[in-house]
Design brief:
The complex is a heterotrimer of chains A (338), B (279) and C (294).
Chain A lengths: L1 H8 L8 H35 L1 H7 L9 E2 L4 E2 L2 H32 L2 H16 L2 H28 L14 H26 L2 H9 L4 H30 L2 H6 L17 H7 L7 H33 L3 H14 L5
Antiparallel strand pairs in A: 1-2
Chain B lengths: L23 E12 L2 E12 L3 E5 L6 H8 L9 E9 L2 E2 L7 H7 E4 L10 H11 L6 H11 L3 H4 L12 H14 L4 E5 L7 H14 L4 E5 L3 H7 L2 E9 L5 E10 H6 L4 H7 L5
Parallel strand pairs in B: 2-10, 3-8, 3-9, 6-7, 7-8
Antiparallel strand pairs in B: 1-2, 1-4, 4-5, 9-10
Helix pairs in contact in B: 3-4, 3-6, 4-6, 6-7
Chain C lengths: L11 H41 L3 H5 L14 H32 L2 H16 L2 H16 L3 H26 L2 H9 L4 H29 L6 H4 L18 H9 L4 H35 L3
Chain lengths: 338, 279, 294
């Protein structure tokens, strides 16, 4: 009797060594630490930008946001013309890129035969993988001359009555930058849209076709409305990319301060101004102003990104299949190098 | 073969007099359907008659869905699908070279197994098809008429602007029927229309089919024999044949008035299926 | 059978609708062809201009001194990129994998969601901002170094590696985990002994994609390591080191065609590396997903 009692007491006796027992809580702690670091870096970034820009903030305050000045000599800096440049280039490139990207996504999901689909999809993603400095080099030396010698003269002669198409022709400027940004944004929006279209259930498509609708009527009336929130998220991601691109833009935009309305004119964006000043930043005030620019850029990108996340949220709640499709599409976005 | 007693009640359910007195809407002669090299349906010969309910029954995999989809050219959506033989709709070869599939589908509507309302309002679900098909005059009246025909009007007339996705499964399916009716087809195909619904909704849809029969020709695929017995005037039994190389294909085993199929079938295979001995 | 009194041919209104549908289809094809054409133009122009300037010296020599830059090569930049990306990977790989393990295996669902969203947001922060961040944190006080550059690259790589790892971890069937745990094996041994080895293929390809991405980055390095010497190859991470991207960036600004030629050559080399690496990693990932039933 005493024996079985002793046996019972040891039924769940510890057989695992010390290392083994420590392993589980250690795993939890270590991985939690890693995750906290990965997540907390956002807070760290915000903190560093705030402290780094404090000198400029103390000097200019919020007036920085509405001043067009940028003069090292006069010790006056302002972000307005850069915010303008960022807005113009990003909005224009999104306006051109979105219809193109949706058309490409529709081609890939509705029209392309299976073997073509995989190949073409891969080619479009390759476009996203080209390093931006390579695209910028191409922009300076090949696209630029084309813009100066062919595109701008053409636009100037046909639409020159509009203030947007007046002025000297040049290899660099807003137009060249918009074209380069469009090339970068199209693959992002196309990949995300493509994954989204693939998740619209076949029954919805069949229901429309069975009524006697043509393929385009089915796309316009059923497919696109069903995918609309996802497309908006894709556009938001593309917009975020366009806003944040520094290298290719600074290579082709001409680096000029000031607000001008012609697409032919030289300009600068928040990101490209920061990149363009990397060699010349000498005074503390100038450096602090650059950090101030970075802080503004961070705020804009956070707003756009969180907006995209909110748009994705309702899609996230649907079956895992959709979320995985979305995840994969977001991976492609991560392929674009700046 | 003597009359058999099946578990299925085929006593009078408003069945109509049939066959030689009626016009044939569809005529299939030696119809075979292939998916790539695989034969899915072999040598179907069948006439489907006007303003009757024709049920297609059979074990799973016997090609019932494939057959019904040839009737409105939905097989076109599968790139590997091909047909041989003849399939005529009112004398015209449905799969002929000059025939436009979109036009076919306007005249031959379809209701699917899983209710698939569009992510639009209840009104727009019905109106969208009307708009693209150019039937824009008196849109409101047409929508109401379609919803009444589908026995859905009273339940939704006060919330036509609400999203169709908020309706119950049975209501959604009736909305899909209204959507199909609004396009003024001549034929309505039903691919297992109630298999995703609860018994009460199923019964509502079956009653609806009796009503629709007055104006439309209906073809129904169902795996539920009781449903076929309740609803159909003519019943076609598709069986599975296994070829020497182990490939399986569907064949039309027997096609006759429903009562005969369930009480006195001519083919042993039919008898085996309806008495539940297999399938 | 009655005589057909109508036809099922395209006519009238339907003809117009079909025309519209075909026209839109043509537009879609056109858009796809345009994208392929642009890709071809870019790749071909970089290749044709870059391949010409490639020779053995290019890869094995450092920048020539003096006013005649015709000779010499970019060995210093190749070494620099190797060090920058190498150290970044050493930092980002464990960090990313451990984060993914936490999110997918151990975290309560709410925290996991927050973490995922935070990673997505970090992924979307402009890389120039990340460069300024590391600049403010380290370089202002301690000067430029390749290490600072690697830290910036790691910040960019972690969300990519974590996301890819999480996806493959989720693909490992839970039956495997349950079998191990049911045997009485501890959580951590299960994770590293069963789950991670199953997912290792996906983790490696995800990391490869992140490496290809990091190798192509320029903006974060501008303020962190651009003062590196170009006359000798250096592998000391505490020194600022040039990268291939920085070299392309700097040379692209020069009017001298000799520098431009080197820029093309470096661009061609970098582009080949990035494209080939990305493409093969994606192929491997697709095959891997199919195997695990994704």
């Amino acid at each position: 009797m005493a024996d079985s009692h002793a046996e019972k007491k040891n039924a769940l006796a510890r057989t695992r060594g010390r290392l083994d027992r420590l392993g589980d809580p250690a795993l939890k702690a270590v991985t939690f630490g890693a995750a906290a670091l990965a997540v907390g870096v956002i807070v760290l970034i915000a903190y560093e930008l705030v402290t780094g820009s404090s000198l400029a903030f103390r000097t200019f305050g919020l007036h920085f946001l509405v001043s067009q000045d940028w003069s090292v000599f006069l010790k006056k800096f302002g972000a307005l013309s850069l915010i303008f440049g960022t807005a113009v280039t990003a909005v224009l490139s999104i306006l051109i890129a979105t219809p193109l990207a949706i058309a490409i996504a529709l081609f890939l999901t509705e029209l392309a035969p299976k073997p073509v689909r995989a190949l073409l999809g891969a080619l479009v993603e390759m476009l996203a993988a080209i390093p931006s400095v390579v695209l910028g080099l191409w922009g300076i030396l090949i696209l630029g001359p084309f813009v100066q010698n062919t595109l701008e003269p053409f636009l100037g002669s046909t639409l020159g009555f509009l203030p947007f198409f007046q002025g000297r022709h040049s290899t660099s400027g807003i137009l060249t930058a918009v074209l380069i940004l469009t090339i970068m944004v199209v693959p992002i929006v196309a990949s995300v849209s493509r994954e989204l279209f693939a998740t619209v259930p076949a029954e919805l498509r069949e229901g429309a076709l069975a009524l006697g609708a043509t393929r385009w009527e089915m796309v316009r009336g059923v497919l696109l409305p069903a995918a609309r929130p996802g497309i908006l998220a894709a556009v938001a991601l593309g917009f975020g990319r366009a806003v944040g691109e520094a290298i290719a833009v600074t290579q082709v935009i001409g680096s000029q301060t000031g607000i001008r309305w012609s697409l032919f004119s030289h300009s600068d964006t928040l990101a490209s101004r920061i990149a363009g000043q990397y060699q010349g930043a000498s005074t503390n005030l100038q450096i602090s102003s650059l950090v101030y620019l970075a802080a503004i850029l961070l705020v804009i990108s956070l707003v756009v990104n969180i907006g995209a996340q909110l748009l994705i949220k309702p899609i996230d709640r649907r079956p895992r299949r959709r979320r995985i499709a979305l995840d994969r599409a977001l991976e492609t976005q991560g392929l674009s190098a700046d | 073969m003597e009359a058999i007693r099946t578990r299925i009640d085929v006593s009078g359910h408003g069945r109509s007099p049939v066959a030689e007195t009626r016009e044939a809407v569809f005529e299939a002669r030696d119809l075979c359907v292939f998916y790539g090299d695989q034969l899915a349906i072999d040598n179907v010969n069948i006439d489907i008659y006007q303003r009757l309910i024709t049920a297609i029954i059979g074990p799973s995999g016997c090609g019932k869905s494939t057959f019904i989809r040839t009737l409105n050219r939905m097989t076109d959506l599968v790139s590997s699908a091909s047909l041989t033989g003849q399939l005529r709709y009112r004398g015209i070869d449905l799969h002929g070279p000059k025939v436009d599939a979109v036009e076919v589908r306007r005249r031959i509507g379809m209701v699917f197994q899983k209710p698939n309302p569009f992510p639009k309002s209840i009104y727009d679900n019905v109106a969208w098809g009307l708009r693209i098909l150019g039937m824009r005059k008196d849109l409101d009246q047409r929508v109401e008429k379609a919803l009444r025909s589908a026995a859905l009007w009273d339940e939704v007339k006060d919330r036509l602007g609400d999203s169709a996705l908020g309706l119950s499964g049975g209501q959604q399916q009736r909305l899909c029927i209204a959507r199909a009716i609004a396009a003024e087809p001549e034929v309505i195909l039903f691919d297992e229309p109630a298999s995703a619904l609860d018994p009460i909704s199923t019964s509502a849809i079956e009653d609806l089919m009796h009503e629709l029969k007055r104006d439309y020709t209906l073809v129904i695929v169902t795996h539920n024999m009781q449903q076929a017995a309740r609803v159909a005037d003519m019943t076609a039994f598709f069986g599975l044949e296994v070829a020497p190389d182990e490939s399986r294909r569907g064949v039309l085993v027997e096609y006759d008035e429903t009562e005969k199929i369930f009480t006195n079938p001519s083919d042993k295979r039919t008898e085996g299926y309806v008495t539940g001995r297999f399938g | 059978m009655s005589e057909p009194t109508f036809s099922l041919r395209t006519s009238g209104r339907l003809r117009r609708r079909q025309l519209v549908s075909r026209a839109m289809g043509a537009l879609a094809v056109g858009a796809a062809l345009l994208a392929v054409a642009v890709l071809a133009i870019v790749v071909v122009s970089v290749a044709s201009r870059g391949a010409g300037a490639l020779n053995l010296d290019f890869f094995t020599k450092n920048q020539a001194q003096g006013f005649n830059p015709k000779g010499g090569g970019i060995l210093f930049a190749i070494v620099g990129t190797g060090v920058l990306v190498g150290i970044a990977t050493l930092i980002a790989l464990p960090l990313g994998v451990l984060t993914a393990i936490y999110i997918s295996e151990l975290a309560p669902p709410k925290l996991a969601r927050v973490a995922r969203i935070a990673l997505d947001i970090t992924n979307g922060i402009p890389t120039i901002v990340i460069g300024i961040f590391v600049f403010a944190m380290i370089v202002e006080a301690h000067g430029q170094s390749a290490l600072a550059g690697s830290i910036a690259l790691a910040v960019i790589m972690v969300p990519l590696i974590a996301r890819a790892t999480e996806e493959v971890l989720l693909l490992v069937p839970s039956a495997q985990r349950e079998a191990s745990l049911a045997l009485g094996v501890s959580r951590w041994r299960t994770t590293f002994g069963v789950v991670v080895p199953s997912a290792i293929g996906g983790i490696l390809t995800g990391t490869t994609l992140a490496i290809a991405r990091a190798a192509g980055e320029t903006a974060p390095l501008l303020f962190l390591t651009s003062l590196g010497l170009s006359s000798q190859a250096d592998a000391n991470p505490l020194h600022p080191l040039q990268s291939m991207t920085l070299v392309i960036f700097e040379y692209s600004d020069q009017a001298d065609p000799a520098y431009q030629a080197k820029a093309w050559a470096a661009a061609f080399t970098l582009m080949c590396f990035v494209l080939v690496t990305s493409l093969s990693a994606k192929l491997a990932l697709a095959r891997y997903r199919k195997k695990l039933g994704g």
